[in-house]
Design brief:
Keywords: Signal. By secondary structure, this protein is mainly beta. It contains 1 helix and 8 strands. The longest helix is centred in the N-terminal third of the chain and has 20 residues.
């Protein structure tokens, strides 16, 4: 039941967010709709996503999710690839001193709708719950290999 509810929320969020988020599909920018922290007055850092085109941390077919706040940690990520209809999820790492929580997830290429949500601890040590923040990210395909004249069958 819980998984079905999360999937339903993800699909509804995708439909609603598509109209607003289409202009900013592939970048290393804050997610389109930031999660809302409940129970931590100091708040949380900005959540962003990065793809292989934007940063070196993500490989082709991956999205890196990161909370821009050192010393914070925790949170869930649920995603659906609208091109392949694959579903997946991941967990942001727990608190690590001097580190920003980040995780790279293999989503495959295509348009990916994701939600960042769940239990989180901010840098002030306050525990909170994140109401889902939603993002649309266009994950680019791997770059085509450079043509080498030694491997090109048309070159003699």
């Amino acid at each position: 039941m819980k998984t079905r509810t999360v999937r339903g929320i993800t699909v509804l969020a995708a439909a609603g967010a598509t109209a607003f988020a289409a202009p900013a599909l592939a970048s290393a920018e804050p997610i389109d709709f930031q999660p809302i922290p409940i129970g931590c007055p100091a708040g949380i850092g900005v959540v962003d996503t990065e793809t292989a085109l934007a940063e070196e941390d993500a490989e082709p077919g991956q999205i890196e999710y990161e909370i821009e706040q050192e010393g914070s940690g925790g949170g869930q990520i649920s995603w659906v690839n609208l091109r392949t209809l694959q579903l997946g999820g991941g967990v942001l790492p727990e608190v690590a001193e001097g580190e920003e929580p980040a995780v790279a997830l293999q989503t495959g290429e295509g348009l990916v709708v994701s939600a960042v949500w769940g239990a989180h601890q901010n840098a002030e040590g306050q525990g909170c719950f994140l109401l889902p923040g939603v993002d649309l990210t266009n994950v680019p395909p791997a770059a085509a290999p450079d043509e080498d004249e030694n491997t090109d069958p048309t070159v003699e």
